[in-house]
Amino acid sequence: MERLKVSDANLVVYVHPSKSRRVSQAILRELSSLLLKFHEVFDAVVLAYDVEIVDKIAKNLPGLHPYFGVRLNAKLLLFSPKPNMLLEGKVVKLTQESIHIIVLGFASAVIIGEDIREDFRYKNKNGKELYCSRSQKHHLIKVGMMIRFMVKSLDEEILHISGSLLPAHTGSISWLDKNSTEISTTDSVGAVERE
User: Fold this and answer.
1) Each residue of 40-54: pLDDT tens digit?
2) Residues 6 or more apart from 44 whose CB is under 8 A from it?
3) What structural domains and CATH numbers belong to the chain?
4) Which residues form the signal peptide (predicted)?
């Protein structure tokens, strides 16, 4: 997924002298506090890290709190969705007004009615909710399916994504993968007609 990237970072972790016998544990605890939160410094959510201590000698910081700084090299796995990017997620709930999705198992996303293509119609068959394409009868969106959608916005504080199914290359991943040549042909025909 192109929204995931690995970044090399040079970091300094400040450790209290009371933790000097367990510096590695203190560093890992500090780095763990970065996980699954949006950080403006990285412009992304930190999903994982791999760390290497650069200097075995730490530097004391003068001041009221005598912390010492440990320099690290870290590889960070970052999740950075931006508007107009495509994301994939698992549908967890369908209503007549919205589609609710989980991305990478931790970020929630919602696609509201105005951002669902007119071609998709909501149906409730035998208690099973689904969205069905009017033009492509086998293009269905059901709970448990993986879908591809376009990012409209990201609320960084609560990691909530607002999405859209308006572009033609969005919808059920299994259907899109089987019919990708048909979609690109339709897109190019539509582009010619609009000119």
Assistant:
1) 888 899 999 998 877
2) 5, 7, 38, 78, 79, 80
3) 4-79 (3.30.1490), 85-183 (2.40.50.140)
4) none
